[in-house]
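Hi Prof. W.,

I finally got the Methyltransferase prediction working! I wasn't sure whether to trim anything, so I left the full sequence exactly as given:
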Amino acid sequence: MKGRSDGGQKKRVIALVCVAAVVLVFVYLFYGSSDHRASAIEYGRKLGLGGDDDDTKQDDTSSSFGVDDGFTPRSFPVCDDRHSELIPCLDRNLIYQMRLKLDLSLMEHYERHCPPPERRFNCLIPPPNGYKVPIKWPKSRDEVWKVNIPHTHLAHEKSDQNWMVVKGDKINFPGGGTHFHYGADKYIASMANMLNFPNNVLNNGGRLRTVFDVGCGVASFGGYLLSSDILAMSLAPNDVHQNQIQFALERGIPASLGVLGTKRLPYPSRSFELAHCSRCRIDWLQRDGILLLELDRVLRPGGYFAYSSPEAYAQDEEDLRIWREMSALVERMCWKIAAKRNQTVIWQKPLTNDCYLEREPGTQPPLCRSDNDPDAVWGVNMEACITSYSDHDHKTKGSGLAPWPARLTSPPPRLADFGYSTGMFEKDTELWRQRVDTYWDLLSPRIESDTVRNIMDMKASMGSFAAALKDKDVWVMNVVPEDGPSTLKLIYDRGLMGAVHSWCEAFSTYPRTYDLLHAWDIISDINKKGCSEVDLLLEMDRILRPSGFIIIRDKQRVVDLVKKYLKALHWEEVGTKTDSDSDQDSDNVIFIVQKKLWLTSESLRDME
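And this is what came out:
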């Protein structure tokens, strides 16, 4: 018996030694080898792709901020190629793996479901094989590189509707859609004509500025609105028409992934002058009209809903039934038909509460409770109720907004909701104008007038950063943190756009979306919330295009942290400047980095 026991002990010792050896080899290969992944990554300049092949020196100084053990990895692993389009909180594989019980009829499988920390992909998202620097705006509205989004099924599926056409190494966008085969421009002019707007221009002299396009396809409708100084939030889920939003963003058109499901849209009340649905395949009658009531919440007083669908014109029994029920629903919501022609109907929301107050008692849908905050949106369930106007808005009989472009710099009426004065607003606008001038001075050696198109302000406050970019051919996704003042409504009141978000989670967009990220104190904020700064850096890398820029305006300790990870993230320093503001941010540092354009060795072999 003693001999058997000794033999078992020896086997256990050998097994432990083997395990320890494997761990040591892994640590050496992963962190210790100076050549780790050096053979697996090549930079853009070596490939003739416009990147930089200089290695940034690793800063080995330790810091307690964000790094518990003072250890900084020399590199992050590169995700498998199959994750080149990973959207962590909209990952269908995660839903299957976690066996989430979701109601498919309510579109819950298209809503956000974020991975717990132990299931996060802490790796760099590789670009697809042969990736090229995106075509510049405005040319990109009509064509993109096929290798950047190597999906052509929509071109075949929608070939009769002119969504997109494959031509050689590019994908072209003729401007068609399911309901406007002959071009979005003609369709838009037709809508303006239906509403008797001057010169058949839909912006109505600057009074119609913000649009919500639900079920937008590849966002040609929103893309063609831009020439009329109209900004559209184009929204679609990652559904059977996969990559439609990815195509929109690659084209340089404002767009976001999302769905009308069970949660409120991440936009405040009274954000849009027009909502649009062109055969968007949404059942507006379900659950007592809850989805139509969500549109009502985000529409401004007197706002329009343009609906192009068979129910508006078809004469078969089912379509007629849907039309009757939908007409009855919107009538109880106090909407009126503003125009109806051929296959399109345009309803208009009331300007005041008068119609709501005149409804018979017990009329459905009911008015929302007085304690129902219409601007609370992050993780909040939709409700089947009508959002009435405040006493002030009821008396104003409208939004009280100036026409565009004066709207951008005019103090928004809802400033009073936060106790902000006109003077504070004007000071903030001027402050950010000066700051943006400083940013562009630092960026000037690296950028031309068309270098950046898609921009994100990760902590937008009142939107003054975006307002300062008004003379540049860019659009800005203004993100307002979910736990701060709900200033996103001020941003929409300025004729800009954005969304509410928590940076403890991944943003609802594809990899390689933005040309420039503006990170003002956002990394410091993440640390205070107890979330991972490194996870945030990896997320910023995911949504940033190769050769894109990040402007960090934060404390020196944050800049020191980012510098420790430059080499691991394949970023390089562009410029640094001490904040010269006489403001509360005077201890901040401006630190600008650029993401290198790199490809894996596997991609290089495929290209060869």
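The first strand starts at residue 41 and ends at 43. Does that look reasonable to you?

Thanks,
D.
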